[in-house]
């Protein structure tokens, strides 16, 4: 690697910052659904969509909005009236589906969840939180305290009492063989059992589709069933939409809508790509919950005019171009292509997903045993073929994650599927 950037990285940054690839990649520029590395190699980007670049790399509309705002002013976010913040908050409140919605902007998903937990514990006067096994909610003190995925949850003396609930993933474990109906019933019983044996919790925090966990979905309606049990007891439901928001799942604008039978969550959190690269996170909550704090607050960088301008331009673009519909159509085609390809690869246990959020679970052929080495090998082979994908999964990272920018077109979907097919075949 040029000028030993990797050596310098290792010498000065924490060991726990995970890096992809045997020879880590330095991405230097991008356009549309493509990125280039420092050596000038071009890649189709099937992962950046869930990281930062939800819509497209170097989207001119966002670049223009950011540049114009940077040239005008970037000042304190919250001490003075902030027009782009109010504009974006109005649009998100209206899209959220939460009645009397209030919006608070942060700079990351971690901080969004941290804020949601602060609100829930203050509102309910309880520091007990329900979270899902295998979940990921961020890296702060409280967020690791509700992260069930042990690979991403370092030992910390979290001040929260966390109770982990079944339902996020069922490829393995005691409920693996149940059908959807019995599975939901078993998870609800598990939840009731926990509620019967603990102090009243403040909230349940859950990802509608587990992201870092490998793009695993519970049966539709699980969270509706949970919500009924929780609401009877006044427990709040926080839907972590950091990966599932903004139409990525194709069928719905938010992940929680697959569970909408009994109504919206009390809070939702968002982040990642809404700024198409600018750092925006946030919480949407019912007014009563958002306004429960009994002291002032301020945010220096949450909601700066520059990030809000990016968010507004990006949201406008994605709505005007119906990128949710695009995720449904192109994602549907991609998942079909990947399922057809996987049928010839015994290591693929399952191709799952919704819209442009597709997971491929790898096991040692003919067994149920997770195969993280195979996942790494496919990641490397795809890169060699000119395609970037991600990894994820439970305690073993044995799933591949496909999450391209939402503007992916059919030709790119076909091209990426062909590269991934070759990469999967190469590990046989
Ligand atoms: N929640 C979920 C569901 C996430 O996937 C992530 C990031 N992987 C976070 C929260 C944390 O977001 P950030 O990295 O912006 O802090």
Automatic annotation (TrEMBL):
Q: Which SUPFAM superfamilies does this chain map to?
A: PLP-dependent transferases
Q: Which UniProt keywords apply?
A: Aminotransferase, Pyridoxal phosphate, Transferase
Q: Drop me one GO molecular function for this one.
A: transaminase activity
InterPro entries in alphabetical order = Aminotrans_3, PyrdxlP-dep_Trfase, PyrdxlP-dep_Trfase_major, PyrdxlP-dep_Trfase_small
Q: Which superkingdom?
A: Bacteria
The record's annotation in Gene3D superfamilies points to: Aspartate Aminotransferase, domain 1, Type I PLP-dependent aspartate aminotransferase-like (Major domain)
The coenzyme or cofactor needed here is:
pyridoxal 5'-phosphate
For this protein, the Enzyme Commission number is 2.6.1.44
Tell me the CDD domains matching this sequence.
Answer: OAT_like
Q: Which family does it belong to?
A: Belongs to the class-III pyridoxal-phosphate-dependent aminotransferase family.
User: What does the subunit section of this Swiss-Prot or TrEMBL entry state?
Assistant: Homotetramer.
What this protein is called in its record is alanine--glyoxylate transaminase
């Amino acid at each position: 690697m040029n000028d030993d950037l990797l050596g310098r990285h290792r010498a000065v940054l924490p060991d726990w910052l995970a890096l992809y690839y045997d020879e880590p990649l330095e991405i230097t520029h991008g356009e549309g659904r493509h990125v280039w590395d420092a050596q000038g190699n071009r890649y189709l980007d099937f992962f950046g969509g869930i990281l930062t670049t939800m819509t497209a790399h170097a989207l001119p509309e966002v670049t223009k909005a950011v540049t114009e705002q940077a040239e005008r002013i970037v000042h304190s976010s919250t001490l003075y009236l902030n027009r782009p913040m109010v504009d974006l908050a109005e649009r998100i409140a209206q899209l959220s589906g939460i009645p009397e919605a209030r919006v608070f902007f942060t700079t990351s998903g971690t901080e969004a969840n941290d804020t949601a937990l602060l609100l829930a514990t203050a509102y309910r006067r309880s520091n007990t939180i329900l979270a899902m096994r295998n979940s990921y909610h961020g890296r702060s003190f409280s967020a690791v305290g509700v992260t069930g995925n042990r690979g991403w949850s370092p030992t910390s003396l979290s001040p929260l009492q966390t109770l982990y609930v079944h339902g996020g993933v069922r490829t393995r474990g005691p409920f693996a063989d149940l059908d959807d109906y019995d599975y939901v019933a078993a998870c609800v019983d598990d939840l009731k059992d926990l509620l019967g044996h603990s102090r009243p919790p403040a909230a349940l925090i859950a990802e509608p589709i587990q992201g870092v966990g490998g793009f695993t979905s519970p049966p539709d309606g699980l969270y509706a069933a949970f919500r009924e049990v929780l609401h009877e007891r006044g427990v709040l439901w926080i839907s972590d939409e950091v990966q599932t928001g903004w139409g990525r799942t194709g069928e719905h604008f938010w992940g929680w809508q697959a569970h909408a039978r009994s109504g919206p969550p009390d809070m939702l959190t968002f982040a990642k790509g809404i700024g198409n690269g600018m750092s925006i996170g946030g919480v949407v909550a019912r007014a009563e919950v958002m306004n429960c704090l009994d002291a002032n607050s301020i945010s220096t960088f949450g909601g700066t005019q520059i990030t809000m301008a990016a968010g507004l331009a990006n949201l406008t673009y994605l709505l005007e171009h119906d990128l949710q519909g695009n995720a449904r159509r192109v994602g549907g085609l991609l998942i079909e292509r990947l399922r057809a390809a996987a049928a010839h690869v015994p290591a693929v246990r399952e191709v799952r997903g919704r819209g442009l959020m597709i997971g491929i679970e790898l096991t040692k052929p003919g067994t149920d045993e997770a195969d993280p080495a195979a996942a790494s090998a496919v990641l490397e082979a795809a890169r060699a073929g000119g395609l970037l994908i991600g990894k994820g999964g439970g305690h073993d990272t044995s799933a591949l994650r496909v999450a391209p920018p939402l503007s992916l077109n059919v030709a790119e979907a076909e091209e990426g599927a062909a590269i991934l097919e070759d990469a999967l075949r190469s590990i046989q």
